[in-house]
From TrEMBL:
Entry keyword set: Membrane, Transmembrane, Transmembrane helix
TM region positions: 47-70, 91-124, 174-195, 281-305, 317-338, 359-386, 398-430, 442-463
InterPro entries xrefs: CitT-rel (IPR030676), MatC_N (IPR009827)
One Pfam family of this chain: MatC_N
Biased amino acid composition, Low complexity: 250-268
Record's compositionally biased regions (Basic and acidic residues): 210-225
Positions with biased composition (Gly residues): 239-249
Protein name as annotated: SLC13 family permease
Positions of the UniProt region annotated as Disordered: 209-268
Domain Dicarboxylate carrier MatC N-terminal: start-end pairs: 1-149
């Protein structure tokens, strides 16, 4: 058995053990990286650690640290109240506001994870306060970021268009942008309908100066996904606990304020701590977008400044960093780094490109892009797959523009996976949820996207241009 095949089988075993034994998958992945790296690939420790995502580690820690402080001093509650006023109490519009906001950020040049890191904590805090499914809100944020991610001036768009030009392939910047925007807009619409958006719309406007009221039992005690979907539930009730929907048989009560919400008498008032926190959030956006500074290091620096000025609000913030999520994501990505180092990903891609049937090779490349990108860098996999597609694109049987668009969409739309940077940020940002349950929901949803979207974009963008 080849080393590449062994490494893939070990990854499957890691998934099975983590699912059946409730062991942190990141810890298992670290052990697998050590075992496969040393015994199968003959890698030393430095080569194994080369795959450790240090930048993502800092982003996850820094952003969750900063927003833990924002929750403690009531800034997120103030932002929630301001958002409700912006849409005149129409809670159902907020997921679309978040979709447009993250899309606008990535379209003007923000890296997708940076945009999600900025918006997700605010969006998920809003979801917890007003009983919106965290899966719905998280998906809207991620799909919004990817919807704007391929504009001609965006990071993803510039990279893909540059690869296309370097490989001497015909390209169309507007077609690439529209393909991603339309695909993510359609997916967001489906998610909105399936995971409680219509019920939120029927709920109408909530009072602007009073706690929100959750949906009725009939509207909320049905699970949205296997493993206990996350429909609208009382804010402050963790998924799967208390009187929430749990296994799908519980009943929900009226929405109440989160138990960890600040005890200040007026969450609409701007205190000095909240003004400083809002200024820090704006500074984070400016630092990332205008000066291209690292989002994680910037967030940690701002959090330290706030902690120094208001230590009473920050005393427990470090403990609220999503450490279990950090372990999970960093472990899995370290193992993926071992797969890349030993050539498993290239081996799989080359095996597909050698297939003599162009249409079949095209759809398999889309699926490889989706599967690998669900665990690794979307930009990295696009940079690898587009050159792999060159041999059969050169034959003229497959339209290059449609194929590039299909690969780009397939490799980025799956970033809702909890193993991707964006999915990990959503998982880490969600307050008042059972994280293990929310992780399973994101994993199931990500799996559905991986299974369905590559085939759909292949049918829509590649097949019509064949022959």
């Amino acid at each position: 058995m080849s080393a590449e095949l062994i490494s893939i089988l070990v990854l499957v075993v890691v998934f099975v053990i983590a699912t059946t034994r409730s062991i942190n998958m990141g810890a298992l992945a670290f052990a697998a990286a050590f075992g496969v790296g040393e015994l199968v690939a003959d890698l030393n420790a430095d080569e194994i650690f080369a795959g450790f995502p240090g930048d993502l580690f800092v982003v996850l820690v820094g952003v969750t640290y900063l927003f833990a402080i924002a929750r403690a001093n009531g800034t997120t509650d103030w932002l929630v109240h301001a958002s409700i006023r912006l849409v005149r109490g129409r809670v159902a519009l907020i997921p679309w506001v978040m979709f447009v906001l993250t899309g606008a950020l990535t379209a003007i040049g923000a890296v997708s994870p940076a945009a999600v890191a900025i918006v997700a904590p605010i969006a998920l805090s809003f979801a917890a306060r007003y009983g919106i499914s965290p899966l719905l809100m998280g998906a809207m944020v991620v799909h919004g970021a990817q919807g704007g991610g391929f504009s001609p001036i965006s990071i993803y768009g510039s990279i893909v268009n540059g690869i296309v030009e370097r490989e001497n392939l015909p390209g169309n910047e507007i077609a690439l942008f529209l393909a991603s925007l339309i695909a993510n807009l359609v997916i967001a619409g489906v998610v909105f309908v399936l995971f409680g958006g219509l019920k939120l719309w029927a709920q109408g406007a909530v009072p602007l100066d009073e706690p929100s009221k959750g949906p009725s039992k009939d509207a909320s005690d049905k699970d949205d996904l296997p493993e206990g979907g996350s429909g609208p539930r009382p804010a402050g009730t963790a998924a799967g606990t208390g009187t929430g929907s749990g296994s799908g048989s519980g009943t929900n009560t009226a929405v109440a304020t989160r138990p960890d919400a600040p005890t200040t008498p007026d969450t609409t008032r701007l205190t000095p701590a909240r003004i400083a926190t809002l200024t820090s959030l704006v500074a984070l956006v400016v630092a990332v977008l205008a000066f291209d500074l690292d989002a994680g290091l910037t967030a940690i620096t701002l959090a330290v400044v706030l902690s120094t000025a208001w230590p009473e609000d920050s005393r427990n913030a470090v403990g609220q960093i999503a450490w279990s999520t950090v372990l999970l994501i960093c472990g899995v990505l370290t193992y993926v780094g071992v797969l890349d180092e030993m050539g498993t990903i290239t081996w799989a891609g080359e095996g597909v490109s050698d297939i003599g049937v162009p249409l079949l090779a095209a759809v398999l490349l889309c699926y490889i892009g989706a599967i690998v990108s669900a665990f690794a860098s979307s930009v990295g996999i696009m940079g690898a797959l587009i050159p792999l597609a060159v041999p059969f694109l050169a034959q003229g049987e497959i339209g290059a523009i449609g194929m590039v668009c299909a690969l780009a969409v397939s490799a980025t739309v799956v970033d809702v996976s909890p193993f991707s940077t964006n999915g990990a940020l959503v998982l880490a940002a969600a307050p008042d949820v059972d994280r293990e349950r929310f992780f399973r929901q994101l994993m199931v949803y990500g799996g559905i996207v991986v299974a369905v979207v590559p085939a759909v974009v292949w049918l829509a963008l590649v097949v019509p241009n064949w022959g």
